[in-house]
UniProtKB/TrEMBL annotation, chain A:
<keyword id="KW-1133">Transmembrane helix</keyword>
<feature type="transmembrane region" description="Helical">
    <location>
        <begin position="310"/>
        <end position="337"/>
    </location>
</feature>
<feature type="transmembrane region" description="Helical">
    <location>
        <begin position="349"/>
        <end position="368"/>
    </location>
</feature>
<feature type="region of interest" description="Disordered">
    <location>
        <begin position="390"/>
        <end position="409"/>
    </location>
</feature>
<keyword id="KW-1003">Cell membrane</keyword>
<dbReference type="InterPro" id="IPR043428">
    <property type="entry name" value="LivM-like"/>
</dbReference>
<feature type="transmembrane region" description="Helical">
    <location>
        <begin position="87"/>
        <end position="108"/>
    </location>
</feature>
<dbReference type="Pfam" id="PF02653">
    <property type="entry name" value="BPD_transp_2"/>
</dbReference>
<keyword id="KW-0812">Transmembrane</keyword>
TrEMBL record, chain B:
<dbReference type="GO" id="GO:0016887">
    <property type="term" value="F:ATP hydrolysis activity"/>
</dbReference>
<keyword id="KW-0029">Amino-acid transport</keyword>
<keyword id="KW-0547">Nucleotide-binding</keyword>
<dbReference type="InterPro" id="IPR052156">
    <property type="entry name" value="BCAA_Transport_ATP-bd_LivF"/>
</dbReference>
<comment type="similarity">
    <text>Belongs to the ABC transporter superfamily.</text>
</comment>
<protein>
    <submittedName>
        <fullName>ABC transporter ATP-binding protein</fullName>
    </submittedName>
</protein>
<dbReference type="InterPro" id="IPR017871">
    <property type="entry name" value="ABC_transporter-like_CS"/>
</dbReference>
<dbReference type="GO" id="GO:0015658">
    <property type="term" value="F:branched-chain amino acid transmembrane transporter activity"/>
</dbReference>
<dbReference type="InterPro" id="IPR027417">
    <property type="entry name" value="P-loop_NTPase"/>
</dbReference>
């Protein structure tokens, strides 16, 4: 909780209070406090962005997307992780972490549920892919690509299963309980014979296709095709999440994050929506796990520890909790830094832990501040609400300063 | 007609009893005030009516229907709406978005824009600040927003928990005036206050709450005239 609903709005409310209260004594309203919002560089960008029409947004996005696709082919000095780590594989790791962060952001950033055991769903996804494709598994085998929807479904199911008994807890209590989730999966993997403990599963499947040289296109060490696959999936997920955050569901999540009791008394079935956030987040986590399992080709119980789970949280919070773009940046950075600076890789938990604390103390909104509402409502959503009330707004729209403000936006 | 009936309601926090065997009614069209010192159990009573707390004993009826076990998010659809203590607005949402949240449980979309107009007429300030974030508004404006948001569900019973708390005097007067106006438009109001003077003056009937139990009841005027209440709550000896 405390991570996502950062103290910023409250602080502003206190500082703005004086101004606004003074105004009520006869100073014309709307003069200063109405526009007294915290301005930041990124904030101004996101303002501009939200005010752009959809088609224009796509035009701006297009080169970004093209660049993203070309990333593993551009082995730029200083930026590259080589010679220490293969660059395309590093790109793949960044994409996976970005995907994880986007999924966890639904849970932490939107719904305000501090889930410290997100690794559990990542593990469920990995195991689903492994157990349905690896020759070491006694299960039926299906083509790798089919394991992806199965992994999503299974991890969503596990999300609901873990969410139902725990989501009645709030704040720190929930965080403590979720901390155990990751451990549960790891311990089950050790205890259940079919999950094969430490020996695990070798030769996890991968998508079809063989190159001219007879080597599979999606070989474990061939980062570029894996990265492209992950990127396509990431873009699809971003599109879905984007639509969701502008929907009724998104509004309900933000309301829950900001004030759960108030949301409930507004008619939001808070428990149901929290379970949904948990399940959808779990689905994305499982999806990322399935891709990871396929790419690495080996899944065992050593890969899913609580510390990595905290790293996931760090990715979300560093990037700017509640903001998809922030989540991608955060996820990519958390993967990139240890791969690029191999000398400090050993200390990554320490580094990101300290960064996490610093961000939470000094800049609760992360590197790319969402200015919070962005997550709930972009301009588009605001316009939707506005349109809904078109009649009333129009009729009551007689005050000069409101028209002026409308024109300036 | 009796809109709300509390019958022998008790509420516990763990093993601590905050409300003991409380019974009272709210009739349609009334303003009923509930006054009492800090910690008397006023907020607990409100949360029990809105459904955020479950009573450990007794029953609650709303429009002759037993709602004792009904979830809070269903109660708002039935017509109980709450402006909580401390306002509980959504700081990262704009004024308009906050108001829109008030319609979340509503089934009829058609009346929504009329209700928005009503809220903007009651609180022109909210119209002026339509695009401002809830969190950057002054305390008085936030209180207006909380009441306006509660009205957006078109409630039959409006629960107001200390609407005057922490407000500048001119805001307090304005808020109480608007409460009377809302009531005049046909909404029944249950008002919780420490500001006993105004709350009693505006109320048709009132109850005094002391450590979880009702100790006095009567019309607002009767309680205003009661010497014991004068001494304890009205700051005159
Ligand atoms: N969450 C809680 N847990 C335990 N006790 C509580 C809680 N909330 C309120 N109480 C106790 O219940 C009593 C009534 O509180 P409340 O209803 O908030 O009083 P009021 O609104 O009249 O000031 C107080 O003694 C208070 O300490
Ligand atoms: Mg109270």
């Amino acid at each position: 909780m405390s991570m996502s609903d950062g103290p910023k709005p409250l602080q502003t409310s206190k500082s703005a209070q004086g101004t606004a209260e003074a105004e009520s004594h006869g100073v014309p309203p709307g003069s200063s406090a109405a526009v007294a919002r915290p301005r930041r560089t990124f904030g101004a960008w996101s303002d501009k962005w939200r005010e752009m029409p959809r088609t224009k947004q796509w035009l701006v996005l297009l080169p970004v997307v093209v660049l993203a696709f070309l990333l593993p082919l551009m082995d730029i000095p200083l930026i590259t992780t080589e010679p220490g780590n293969d660059w395309p594989l590093a790109c793949q790791a960044m994409a996976i972490f970005a995907l994880v962060a986007v999924g966890l952001n639904i849970v932490i950033g939107y719904a305000g549920l501090l889930d410290l055991g997100y690794i559990a769903f990542f593990a469920v996804g990995s195991y689903t892919a492994a157990m349905l494709t690896s020759p070491d598994s006694a299960f039926i085998k299906i083509p790798y690509l089919w394991t992806i929807p199965v992994a999503i479904a299974v991890s969503m199911f596990v999300g609901v299963l873990l969410g139902l008994p725990t989501l009645r807890l709030r704040g720190d209590y929930l965080a403590i309980v979720t901390l155990g989730f990751g451990e549960i999966v790891r311990i089950l993997a050790t205890l259940i014979p079919a999950m094969k403990g430490q020996p695990g599963f070798q030769n996890v499947g991968h998508p079809p296709g063989v190159g001219d040289d007879g080597v599979p296109v999606f070989a474990n060490n061939n980062g570029t095709p894996w990265y492209w696959l992950t990127l396509v999936i990431l873009i699809i997920i971003l599109f879905l999440v984007g639509n969701m955050e502008r929907s009724r569901v998104g509004r309900a999540w933000i309301a829950i994050r900001e004030d759960e009791d108030a949301a409930e008394t507004m008619g939001v079935p808070t428990f149901k929506y929290k379970v949904w956030a948990f399940a959808l987040g779990a689905g994305v986590g499982g999806l990322a796990g399935a891709i990871m399992g396929g790419q690495v080709g080996f899944v065992n119980n050593q890969k899913f520890d609580v510390v990595t789970s905290i790293l996931f949280v760090a990715a979300v919070v560093l990037g700017g909790s509640g903001n998809k773009v922030g989540a991608i940046v955060g996820g990519a950075l958390v993967a990139y830094i240890p791969l690029r600076f191999t000398a400090i890789a050993e200390y990554k938990f320490l580094i990101f832990g300290v960064a996490l604390i610093i961000i939470m103390i000094y800049r609760a909104q992360g590197l790319v501040p969402a200015r919070q509402r962005l997550l709930a409502y972009g301009t588009k959503a605001y316009a939707d609400v506005k349109r809904k009330y078109g009649k009333a707004s129009h009729r009551a729209d007689t005050t000069p300063q409101s028209t002026a403000e409308g024109a300036s936006s | 007609m009796t809109l709300l009936e509390m019958k022998n309601v008790s509420v516990h926090y763990g093993r601590i009893e905050a409300i003991h065997d409380m019974s009272f009614t709210v009739e349609e069209g009334e303003i009923v005030s509930l006054i009492g010192a800090n910690g008397a159990g006023k907020t607990t009573t409100m949360k029990t009516i809105s459904g955020l707390l479950n009573p450990s004993g007794g029953s609650i009826k709303f429009m002759d229907e037993d709602i004792t076990k009904m979830k809070a998010h269903i109660r708002v659809v039935q017509g109980i709406s709450q402006a909580p203590e401390g306002r509980g607005i959504f700081p990262a949402m704009t004024v308009l978005e906050n108001l829109d949240m008030g319609t979340f449980g509503r089934k009829d979309r058609s009346g929504v824009s009329d209700d928005l107009e009503r809220v903007f007429t009651l609180f022109p300030r909210l119209k002026e600040r339509e695009k401002q974030f809830g969190g950057t508004m002054s305390g008085g404006e936030q209180q207006m927003l909380a009441i306006g948001r509660a009205l957006m569900s078109r409630p039959k019973l409006l629960l107001l928990d200390e609407p005057s708390m922490g407000l500048a005097p001119q805001f307090i007067r304005q808020i109480f005036k608007i409460i009377t106006e809302i009531n005049g438009q046909g909404t029944t109001v249950l008002l919780v206050e420490q500001n006993a003077n105004q709350a009693l003056a505006r109320a048709h009937r009132a109850f005094v709450l002391e450590t979880g139990a009702i100790t006095h009841s009567g019309t607002g005027k009767e309680l205003l005239a009661n010497p014991a209440i004068k001494e304890a709550y009205l700051g005159v000896g």
